[in-house]
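Task card 7
Instruction: Convert sequence to structure tokens.
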Amino acid sequence: MPTTTTSSSPSRLSAPGVIVTLFVLAMSACVLGLVVWKALDARKTMLAQSETDSRNLAHSLVEHASRSIQAIDVAMSGMADLLKYQNPQPDRFNAFLANTANALPQLREIGVFDTLGNWRYSSLPETPSHNNSDRDYFIYHRDHTDSTIRVNAPITSRLTGRTSIILSKRIDGPDGSFKGVLTGAIDNQYFSDFYKTFQIGESGGISLIRSDGTLLLHWPSMEVGKDLSGTQLIQTRLKQSLAGSYKIDSPFDGITKYFSYEQTTQYPLIVTVAIPEDQVLATWRSNLLSDVIVASVLLCTVILLAALLSTQFRFRLNMENALRERESRYRLLADNIADVIILLDRLGNIVFVSHSVEFVLGHSPNELLGRSCFELVHPDDVEAVKAASAQLTDLTANRTVIFRTYRDDKSLAWVEVNFKLAMRATDREKVEIVGVLRDVTLRKSMQDELTALNSKLAELATTDGLTGLANRRTLDGFLRSAYEQHEQISVLLIDVDNFKGYNDSNGHQAGDECLKRVASVIADATINTPALSARYGGEEFAIVLPDVSEADAITIAEALRLRVRALEIPNMASTRGHLSISVGVASRNSLTSNEAVLVGEADLALYEAKRRGRDCVVANSALQREYFSAGFSHDS
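Output:
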């Protein structure tokens, strides 16, 4: 017998080793596969979102440029028609030109030149005396009968020395002859001041280009006049579509960027927006690092569990070998060394209990005889034990139940009992219940620890590690579900004002603490409510408010803004001297097609809040009312 046991041991030990190895490999493959899949999917989503944002920005900027020129075009067309048939008095017409220039903020000055290039009328306090017949726009209109407004290449003004974009229009006589040129000057600084209100990163750029490839303005470098006619944009892209996006190496600084463009159909103008690839993928790389850290923790946990499992396997195998060695002399004892054998009558009274009960529970077998087994069961588990015993309907059935019982020292232990009906050979009419009881306290404790660990890992996967708020992935899922389930829903997008300057002045560790304090205020706003607060990215946060109207959402946003101010966190990068937030509010309406549009509306409102000087709350509906009000005034 000993020889047999020794020879079988290596083969028995090899099977658990293979199982543990396969377990580690399978779990590692799952974790790594999940991280790779999530990283690729997140990168794709990040690029798609960035493309949408940059194309929307390009569209907004080209509309701004078009409307800025359109207002001047309308004014100049009326002037050209007047000058075609009349020769108004200089004093009266100069005053009219000055009033027009003052009414249009984008217009610096208006001038009228005669057929020789001399100043005829001007919006300036004094009409200049120099001759402009050498200017490209004068020569063009003198030699061409085209009466539409012309957007000229940028020039340096002889009056102010500033770089300007000249809009010019030919003045015809009643017979169609050349009667002079009407010009309007726009300072490049007008567009530069507008472009700097958008956060596109240190290496990002916005360009205003004429359709022939002449650079009218590149912000922030303020470069003008560069010939871009040989670029891919002019050569191929514009011929395929008036708007689009693609990846390029910037002709200005050589940095790889994601590039969006749009050309207006009314004027020969193109607006481009270029955002560095590193900036677009910065958040993705940060999230990927977090995922790698989580995956590493998971793999370490898997390895630790595998080591514990291997130890348990070896422990069981060693126990089996010990039992097998004693089988010849202690067969009955060896078969039940780790278990307690009990025999019950049909009423549940203990008829027999093995001596191993002293080892397992500390009770003496004699003191248990005649007592009801339910006296040893924890009150909360009695019904479960009774239900299991009631299912014993024939001799072939067996049931297993796990419950809590009391040791001799009154401490609780978890035990597992497998029991079935049995019939005595000497009395075929008497049916009893045989049960095998085993202490599973350690196993239950390990299961509870594993469950707690899995719960902790699940929590880590849905929350932001720094602030404790929900992460971006949880936010997207919650917003999608809330949008489907609620007709009324509001979204707040929150940005910490001048946070980069705060970080630069105080260091990233202080910046992290600052974000934690702001996040605590935001979390308090949704505690014990169906709403969700989350970290949107960087210093941006978001709150989703199901069944909350825009008016109530604005109230909540204002309360948040005031509470953050009440923190009195010094911020030397802010003109106010303390930390503040800007909030964009958007609520679902009949024009909101999906949750992405709702977030986009909140984002536009946030941009407007920052444009108005930060530390304020702006609702998207207010932007819509301002837009329609402006459109009505213009049409009238």
